[in-house]
Structures are given as C-alpha cells and as structure tokens.
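Self-study notes.
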Amino acid sequence: MKGAIGSIKVNSWVDVLDQSTKTQGPFDSARERFYREIDWALDIREGKFYNLELHGIPARLVRRDPETQFVVTRERALQPDWRAKLSAGNRHWPFVIDLFLSDGYPDIVLVAPKRKPKKKYLELLDGLNELRELGVAEPN
C-alpha cells in the first residue's frame, strides 16, 4: 500500500453478528495456516493513511516504516504502571491498546496517520513515541 489512502479497517471476523466457533473457527484455522506459510503479508511502509486498523495480521508479517508505524505486543501492553507514566494528552493510544487487548491477538501494528491534519498527526506520533520510550511500543 502506498500513497494517499483513506480509512481502512482489516478485521478477522467472517460475520460480526455470528462469532461462534462453528462459524468463525474454520476461517481462523485457515488464516493461521496461511500466515505460518508466508514471509510477509502486507507492506504499508509507503502508505499515507488517514486511519489504518489491522486486526488479525501478525505484526511480524507487516512491512512497516519504523518512524511512524509501531508494534505493541500483548506482553508489553500488559506491563504494569505504564499508563500512570503517560502524559495527560496521550489518551488515544491507551484506548486503542485496550481494544486490542480485548481482541485476544498477540500483537498489533499502530500507525501514525499522516493524512490527518499536521497538528493531529504530530500529536498521535508523539503519543506513539512516548509509548516506545515507556517500553510499550516497539518500532520493529
């Protein structure tokens, strides 16, 4: 994905109204097999997104720009006390991390949205950098 891109949400649900094992299970199994057998799934390094949500794609398979696209693992997100150390203005990313934790996936890619107004983009990028400094987000 490259260039100016609007809002994209990738999720792993085949049917958001029926998330039963009977319906979802075969798709989860196929997705897990597929991701075990490939070297990479998505290249977002050159994408300038207004918003990007990637759920269900292992972060190790996403080619990213380490300056603006970060990985948060479940293990790092569950570390104690990092929220208490956040600046007061960094409210968006903790909310996103809470949603990620409720999904059950091992990791997520968080992207600073380059297509947002510059002030908002820089605020969100600063928030991601703060998460990296606290050991919650990692660039690779």
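Second protein, same conventions, sequence then structure:
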Amino acid sequence: MAGAPAALAADLAQDTMVKAYERWDRIQSPEAWCRRVASRELVRAFSQVEDSIEELALEPTSLLPAPGHAAEWEGEQEILRLLGGLPARQRQVLAWTLDGYTPTEIAAELGMRPAAVRASLFKARLAVSSRMTDREGE
C-alpha cells in the first residue's frame, strides 16, 4: 500500500524479516517495528532510483487467491494506483492507517508529532477523494 512495485515490496519484506529475526529478542512490537523498517527502506529505495517514474508503476499480476477474486483484485489495484500518486509521507501515513494504526501510534513509530500525522492523513484522504471523484466523472 505504500506504493512499492511488487518485486521491490517482496524484497523489502524479506530483508525486513531477516533483520527482525536477527534482533527478535530486542523488538517490543514486532508488527510496528517491521513496518517502520520496511517503510524506511522503501524511502531509501525510492530516493536512489534514477529511472523514470513510469518504471516505478505498480506491476500487474495474475496471482489471485482464488479464481473468483478478480473483481476484488482489480479494486485493490485501483486503490494502489491512487495511493501511488500521493507524496511519500502522505502515502506512508495512509498505509499505516489502513493497517489499523492510530495517528498517535504512527507518530511514535515514525518520530513525528501526532498533529503532523493527522495533517498528512487529512491531505492524503482529500487527494484520494478528489481523484476518486474525478475518475467517477470520467
């Protein structure tokens, strides 16, 4: 949901799990720790990319959990495209929110003020809503 292409997301998840395994005895909140580490690595990966933005587009995949889930998968891909158009911080905060974290929890994990998280979340929701409205009008 943070806008990584599927291959990059898989690599980041694998690297994060290796790091978690190595530090398991020191991790207080594994889910939040993994999300924080993966988020930071994604930002690093995006900042190092010198290719065009078109090459960072979400990759289509035919892997579905079951044959009847095509419509659900298409909806998820549409949401991911909308999220991919957001600035990195807004995308990051919205992704954490979609995973059930509160602004206070997100702020603590990302080293931000809760008000800054809420502001980013507000802007992200406003942008996504506007894009959805524009697409419905088309």
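Instructor comment on the second fold: Confidence is low (pLDDT under 50) at residues 51-59.
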